Amino acid sequence: MAVSVPRTIDCDLSALGGADAETIDLLARLQLAARHHGRTLRFLHASPALQDLIAFVGLGAVLRVEPGREAEERRRLPE
């Protein structure tokens, strides 16, 4: 018997302009729909503002958000 493993769908958010509560609602609904179909979403290249907003509303653990390259590079640079 084969074990069903959730498959991840990558969603590039780099072209997303401003983020607001409606954007967060949409991303959460997309994640819910994906899980309903045995998939998970991974949001890539999210802007720092979007990451902050997701954390602010408490959905950081629900929405798998990976930062854009610029943010990753800043984190690696010594201060």
Descriptive overview:
With 79 residues, the chain is α/β, with parallel strands linked by helices. The protein is built from three helices and three strands, in the order E-H-E-H-E-H. It has a three-stranded parallel beta sheet with strand order 1-2-3.
Summarize the structure.
This protein is of the alpha/beta class and 79 residues long.
- Please state the overall shape, judged from the principal axes of the Cα atoms: globular
Beta-strand content estimate: 15-25%
Task: Write the element-wise H/E pattern from the N-terminal end onward.
Answer: EHEHEH
Largest sheet: 3 strands, parallel
Overall mean pLDDT score? 81
Helix content: 40-55%
Distance between the termini: 52 Å
Keywords summarizing the entry:
79 residues, alpha/beta, three-stranded parallel sheet, 3 helices, 3 strands, 23% strand, disordered C terminus
How are the elements arranged and paired?
Layout: E1 7-12, H1 21-36, E2 39-46, H2 48-56, E3 64-67, H3 69-76
